[in-house]
Structures are given as structure tokens and as C-alpha cells.
Design brief:
alpha+beta; binds flavin-adenine dinucleotide; binds 3,4-dihydroxybenzoic acid
Length: 394
């Protein structure tokens, strides 16, 4: 079998790409390791940049997003129990949108299902070969049987642990990585909103974040060690620690039923090239950021905007000029997003071994941010998202 585009992974990157290509009549097949229910149930990102929202709307899968999402005009910053609001809307005219990644995947996989698109669930790709040949080969396992197909292009949208990057020869693509001695303990809570916007807290005890998924569901995080034992965190201990880091005179965090606890170690990773022969890398397969700033999902959509524009131009106009620039354009944007996420992580977290001078300087940097309008404009532009280099013609 031969297909124009073989997509590995039905997460946000792969499912959005398959959907956009289909809108322009470009055939693809999607391989997904897990079941549909598993992909749709994964609790991950929750904040979308305006461009990511617009891409969903332009692609015709933004109806529920427009109805059910929550718009936030800025963020609040806490510095050792004092609170400061940064009004992105007033500064640059753009805010951010809260809509869970699980809802994004439900909308995309539902749309693909409604048109009978070829998404092979529980079908892991085990290898990619002939990257530089006339056609590229995908090896996969269907019902315990190993099979192959060929494609004009493969898109590796299979996340950080996927098969696409593993298929590269040593040194085929340059990569950069940083691990942090930090993790985020995350909880999902049934409770009303304690604040109308997300609340990022610097505190001598460690970073904390209040975010949300809907008016009734709150998402909270605490900085912990990257090898923290979740068993040691009872509900009461979590709430007391959140209060200690976030509380202030006249404001109290509203508690509720904790219905999920998870732990995410922090990591930065990116590829210096997002193309190898006939294989393109997109989303987490090409880059991972620490979550401070909510850039993972948004960077994935920025990649897909340019890649889909390039593939559409290639197939409908016999012109590969955008496709040939994909790697450079994606990396140019991603390296800036890496810098923002890394700098934001450094700003807010207490790193093991730092002394009082370093902590006071961190605090001074945040004090500058919450009082200087020029610093706020620069921050707002990065937090609300850098431009997409190309948009697909839909
Ligand atoms: P993924 O969502 O990882 O999708 C890849 C898909 O490929 C998966 O469905 C996987 O099952 C499939 N796959 C893997 N290997 C194979 C194979 N061999 N064959 C076939 N299929 C395969 N971002 C934020 O902005 N905010 C957050 O709060 C946040 N929290 C996160 C928490 C965790 C625990 C993780 C892991 C990520 C988090 N992120 C967050 C990042 C964000 O969720 C990702 O950036 C986003 O999911 C990227 O989408 P993707 O489609 O590129 O990759
Ligand atoms: C979430 C929100 C954020 O603003 C962020 O930086 C990281 C995660 C969230 O809602 O999960």
C-alpha cells in the first residue's frame, strides 16, 4: 500500500494535521499506539493561544471550543504572598483561552471519525526507513502482525517517546536537552474559581500555580522534586502547602474534592532540524518544554500550521517552497518558545542549592515585571504566543 502522507500519532498534532489535509482532499493514514478513549482521556495542557484557537476555528472544528472555552484577559503574579494583575488585553489587546487538551482531542478525533478517516488505533509504528529514498517506508504492528506501507512523506507526531525520532541514524538531527531537579505535582479539583485568571506564584517555599479547565474544575500545581513520592502528599498536605505559597490578606483559595493527582518532571528538549529526508517532526516529537507558560500544545499547533500549509501547497499547486522552509521556520519559532519556557521556569522556581542573593534577585526580577509597563508588554507578547509563519489555505 502507498499513501501520500503517513502520520504517526493521533495526539493534537497528528489529528489536527490529518483533519486539515482532509479538508483539502489530501489523503493520509494515522497510526496511534493507544486506544481512542486513552488519547481523549489524557489530562495535559489547558491554555490555548489565540492563534491555536483561530486554527481550530478556520479548520471547522472550533464550534464547541467557541461555546465552552473561557477567555482570560491576563494573569496574576504572586511574589511571597502579594498579588499583582498583568492585563494582557489592556497592554496588547490579546488574552488567552482555557480549553482542556482532552476537549481538543475529543473534537479532532470525533471529526475524523464522523467522516470515516483512516485512524488505526492500538497500532504502533515500530520503525521508519528509506528516509532519503523515492518513497519512505513505515513498519507497524496491526493485531500482532508486522506490516509495512510506503508514503511520499511521514510526519512524526508521536510525542517525546515515539518511534519517528528513534528511526534516525546517530547524528542525523542535532538535539539539545536539559533536565531540571524539579517536578510539578498537579491536582484536578471540583471547586469554583478562586480567581478569574491563572495565578503564578513565586514563594520562598517554591512555585505554585492556580489554573482551571472550566468554571467548575480547577487545576493546581505545586513545585516539588522531580522524584517526589506522590504517596507522601495527602489532600490536606497539598491544600496547606498551596495556602502557604499562595495565600494573602483578604483572599483565600477555595478548596474542593481532589479527583486526580499527577507528577510531571520538568524537561527542555528540542531538535535543531525538524526534517530528515521525507520525514517531518512536529509537536512533542521535536520539542518538549517545562510547563511554565503553557507552550507545549501551542507549539505543536504552530508546527502543524506551517506543515499543513506546506503540504497543501505541494499537493495542490505543485510548489514545495513552504515545505522546504518548514524545518527552519518551525525551529526559529520553537527556539524562542524554548527560551521563554526556560526563562519563566528560572524566574519562578526555587532551585536546590540557591542562596539568599539568588532568590532576592529572582524576586527583584518579578518586582520589575509587575511594575514596568515595557517589561509587561514584552511578557504579554510571549505569553499570548508568537505569530505562526504560515497558515493553511482552507
Ligand atoms: P502527544 O500528545 O504526546 O501525542 C503523540 C501521540 O503519539 C500519542 O497519542 C501517543 O500514544 C502516540 N504514539 C507514540 N508512539 C507511537 C508509536 N510508536 N506509534 C503510534 N503512535 C504512537 N502542555 C501545556 O501546554 N500545559 C500543560 O499543563 C501540560 N501538561 C503536560 C503533562 C504531561 C504529563 C505531558 C506528557 C505533557 C504536558 N503538556 C502540557 C504538553 C502537551 O500536552 C503536549 O505538548 C501535547 O500533547 C503535544 O501534542 P503532540 O500531538 O505533539 O504529542
Ligand atoms: C496550565 C496553565 C498554565 O498557565 C501553565 O503555565 C501550565 C499549565 C494548566 O492549566 O494546566
Amino acid at each position: 500500500m502507498h499513501v501520500p502522507v503517513a502520520i504517526i500519532g493521533a495526539g493534537p498534532s497528528g489529528s489536527l494535521l490529518a483533519w486539515i489535509l482532509r479538508q483539502r482532499g489530501i489523503e493520509s493514514i494515522v497510526f496511534e499506539n493507544r486506544s481512542r478513549a486513552y488519547v481523549e482521556g489524557r489530562i495535559r495542557a489547558g491554555v490555548m493561544e489565540k492563534n491555536a484557537v483561530d486554527l481550530m476555528i478556520r479548520a471547522g472544528v472550533g464550534e464547541r471550543l467557541q461555546k465552552e472555552s473561557m477567555y482570560q484577559r491576563g494573569v496574576e503574579v504572586g511574589i511571597n504572598n502579594t498579588h499583582h494583575f498583568i492585563d494582557f488585553e489592556k497592554l496588547i489587546g490579546v488574552g488567552v483561552t482555557v480549553y482542556g487538551q482532552s476537549e481538543v482531542t475529543k473534537d479532532l478525533l470525533g471529526a475524523l471519525d464522523s467522516v470515516g478517516h483512516n485512524v488505526l488505533y492500538e497500532t504502533p509504528v515500530t520503525g521508519v526507513s528509506d528516509h532519503h529514498g523515492d518513497k519512505i517506508t513505515v513498519t507497524y504492528e496491526e493485531g500482532g502482525v508486522e506490516k509495512t506501507l510506503t508514503a511520499d512523506f511521514v510526519v512524526g507526531a508521536d510525542g517525546y517517546h515515539g518511534a519517528s525520532r528513534k528511526s534516525l541514524p546517530e547524528g542525523g538531527i542535532r538535539m539539545h536537552e536539559k533536565t531540571y531537579p524539579l517536578g510539578w505535582l498537579g491536582i484536578m479539583v471540583k471547586a469554583p474559581q478562586s480567581k478569574p485568571v491563572a495565578f503564578f506564584t513565586y514563594h520562598d517555599r517554591g512555585f505554585a500555580l492556580l489554573s482551571m479547565r472550566s468554571p467548575e474544575i480547577q487545576r493546581l500545581y505545586l513545585q516539588v522534586a522531580n522524584d517526589e513520592n506522590l504517596e507522601e502528599w495527602s489532600d490536606d498536605r497539598i491544600w496547606d502547602e498551596l495556602d502557604a505559597r499562595m495565600g494573602t490578606e483578604g483572599w483565600e483559595l477555595i478548596r474542593g474534592e481532589i479527583f486526580q493527582k499527577d507528577l510531571a518532571p520538568l524537561r527542555s528538549f528540542f531538535c535543531e532540524e525538524q526534517r530528515y529526508g521525507r520525514m517531518f517532526l512536529a509537536g512533542d516529537a521535536a520539542h518538549i518544554v517545562p510547563p511554565t507558560g503553557a507552550k507545549g500544545l501551542n507549539s505543536a499547533f504552530a508546527d502543524i500550521s506551517v506543515l499543513s500549509a506546506g503540504l497543501i501547497q505541494h499537493y495542490t499547486k505543485d510548489d514545495s517552497s513552504i515545505l522546504d522552509q518548514y524545518s527552519r521556520l518551525a525551529v526559529e519559532r520553537n527556539v524562542q518558545t524554548q527560551r521563554f519556557s526556560w526563562a519563566n521556569t528560572a524566574k519562578y522556581h526555587i532551585f536546590p542549592g540557591t542562596n539568599s542573593f539568588e532568590r532576592r534577585m529572582q524576586q527583584a526580577e518579578l518586582e520589575y515585571l509587575v511594575t514596568d509597563e515595557t517589561a509587561q508588554i514584552s511578557y504579554a507578547k510571549q505569553h499570548t504566543g508568537l505569530p505562526f509563519a504560515y497558515w493553511p489555505e482552507l
